[in-house]
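Is iron/sulfur cluster placement plausible here? Inputs below.
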Amino acid sequence: MSAQAPITQDVMTIPRKAPEGPVNLVGLTRDQLRQALLSIGTPEKQAKMRVNQIWQWIYQWGVRDFAAMTNLAKAYRAQLAENFVIEIPEMVSKQVSMDGTRKYLVRIAGGHEVEVVYIPETDRGTLCVSSQVGCTLTCSFCHTGTQKLVRNLTSGEIVGQIMMARDDLGEWPEPGVGTGESGPRLLSNIVLMGMGEPLYNFDNVRDAMKIAMDGEGISLSRRRITLSTSGVVPEIAKTAEEIGCLLAVSFHATTDEVRDKLVPINKRWNIAELLDALRAYPKLSNSERITFEYVMLKDVNDTDEDARRLVKLIQGIPAKINLIPFNEWPGSPYQRSDWSRIEKFADIIYKAGYASPIRTPRGEDIMAACGQLKSATERARKSRKQIEAEAGVAQQ
Ligand code: SAH
Ligand code: SF4
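Reply from A.M.:
I modeled the complex. Tokens:
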């Protein structure tokens, strides 16, 4: 399969009024917010200050009602309310796993749904955010990959997932009583590992992450944001330059033959091309190690030879290898490698000098684990039979 061109979103650069209804301020960059304020007659001289004030209300304090923005004149608040809205996606359901993992089903414009997962740990809380409804790619082990791409999420819908989780966790500080920054945050890390390929929705993902990183708002450090890609090579350098977050790559195989089957984008950009792009990443982004994600599939990619090849391939790249025990989903054509096999694989990598944590599956009882996400509202693109046929590698 050749990689498809990214679907471009009708991203609003000049805010507009009806016919689509009032402009949503959530997801606008600072520049776009400024344009929006100027368009309703905010004096040029005041624009910068108004942007700062409104930005802080929305992203620092979590306020959704213009009437509560008490440092703005009443008449100006009314004017804002006439022209704009502050809206985030609607939470339709929440499931809480035995292990505390929360899976939210979130409805976005058009009635589509995406999933968002919150994973609490002792020293951190990670939100797994979606970037698309469905995915154009068809990785054979991934549940989302059986679903058609419906559309890209807007930047407001992406940052809105973070805001919704903060609502649910009750983590917005109270205006006027400090920033609430005592102790570790409940929501301290973001991983772009939900539904979709974030690098096929680059601009919206970038704008949303810039908002999440902004020091006058949600204020998450770029080192607490990890973007996971299946390997959209031309966008990797751009990610370093324009977002600067940590990078994870869905590697999953050590030969092109196997990777072509597991991660079909490999037919467009193969392992050698991917590694070249990854080699340049840490310098470009001034960031630390790249995470190589490796899903452990029984008798497919889990031999000692694979482990040794993997170590050889990534030589010279500051790396951590994250072994993901395969999470099954209804109709999935693979099985999880045996535990002893995973440990042996991890040991070879560890002895070669790499950290090789085995990712503990979280939220399995609510189908919230990696690669299990799929919105119930969208039609499947393939039958189980087709998936199995395409994943011929599983029967080798
Ligand atoms: N599209 C991006 C990010 C979303 S997937 C990407 O492919 O990287 C997040 C991670 O979960 C990826 O490493 C993906 O390969 C992995 N994954 C997908 N399905 C899985 C499954 N069933 N079990 C375990 N990991 C899976
Ligand atoms: Fe898409 Fe990532 Fe799933 Fe592949 S693993 S189908 S790129 S979401």
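Short version: Residues 135, 137, 139, 142, 144-145, 196-197, 230, 250 surround iron/sulfur cluster (ligand 2) (CB under 6 Å).
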